[in-house]
Every structure is written in C-alpha cells, then in structure tokens.
Amino acid sequence: MKVIVMGCGRIGSQVSRLLSEQGHEVTIIDHDSNSEGRLGPKFKGTIIKGLGFDRNILVQAGIEQVEAFVAASQSDNANIVAARIARNIFHVPRVVARLYDPRRAEIYQRLGLTTISSTNWGAERIFQVLTHRDIDVWNTFGSGEVALVHIELPPHLNGKSVTQVNVPGEIMVVSITRDDHAFVPASGTEFREGDLVHLVVLSSAMDRLEIMLGLEGR
What we know:
Oligomer: single chain
CATH superfamily of the largest domain: NAD(P)-binding Rossmann-like Domain
CATH architecture of the largest domain: 3-Layer(aba) Sandwich
Radius of gyration: 21 Å
Strand content: 25-35%
Order of helices and strands: EHEEHEHEHEHEEEEEH
Number of domains: 2
Distance between the termini: 48 Å
CATH topology of the largest domain: Rossmann fold
Mean pLDDT: 82
Shape: elongated
Strand order of the largest sheet: 3-2-1-4-5-6
C-alpha cells in the first residue's frame, strides 16, 4: 500500500515506522528538515520537506497514486485542511486525521472524516481503569461506547457455554486463548479452566458484565 503521512512528530514517525516495517511504501511530508532523525536507520520511505496542505507538495509526494493519507501534524487546523484536500480533491480512499481537541473530532466525523483523538481515548481509558479495575480494557471504539476487554476465566464459568455469557447487542465473546492457541468460539463452545477470554462490551453494560463475572462489590 502507498501511504502519505503528514507530520513526523511522535505519532507520525511511529505510524511511518510501523507501516514501513510491514512493507508499505511510505512518503512523509514535514516542514522540519530534521525529521529523518526520528525515524531510525531501518526506515525505507521518502521524506519531503514542505506543508502537507500545499497541493503542489501533495502532488510531488504522489497523492494521486496513494491509497491512504494520514494527517498527524501538531496542528488540528492543518490536519483537517490536509485531510479534506486528500479526501475531497484527490479522492484518496483512506484518510485519517489526528486531532488534539475531541470537540473538533466530533464535528469532522459528522462530515465523514475519520479522526483519532488521543485526548478522548486517553480519558476513556483512564475512566475504564478506575471504574472497572478488575476488567482489563484493551481498547475502545467510537467515542468509548464499545470496549474490548480481556479476562481470565472465573472458576464459576468453567464448563459453561459461551452462549451463557453472550448478551445480544451488549456483550459478546470474540476470542478464547487456550493452551497458547487463540480461536473464535462457536455458539456451543464451553469454557475450560485457564481460558483467557476476550469480549466486546457496551460501556453501558460493563456493570452487568462485572456481575456476571462475580466481580461486583470488590
């Protein structure tokens, strides 16, 4: 996949390294001539000095051929302008904008732009850790409405069916790791002692999950 990453700060450089290590063709646009020092010796992509919302720079970076564009500079305004140019003018299939202000993220999501707000994610993660300390929240989706959680199987669920934990529209077991092997359970799968279980849960159903797992009141 050909990708342009605008901004080579902490987020942009890390995303660029990850993509490059997986064999993707990465072009970075950054106004700082010292950007290369943040990428490490293994980075195989291209760096172009300039502004990521400058159409001439974007064309030079090959935006007419790329499959994805990441706006990850330290300016919300620059990220949004660049993301909209990439999506609306050059019709890049996948466009993601990194935003600091979660209020702006909500506005631009309504316009059809995919945005990532670490402020929102971080606040939601802290909330989950504080309020549901016995449940390991690995990730959240949207604005935190859905969580991916990881638990060690409580003894009272040993031998029970996955269907006894699943609650349509609220709680669903999506993976079980058993003897170091992960699999997607079928409806008739029974839990065994030592299972590690991943579930997707509505945040509003987290208390219900704690009761089901026998964790309430701890």
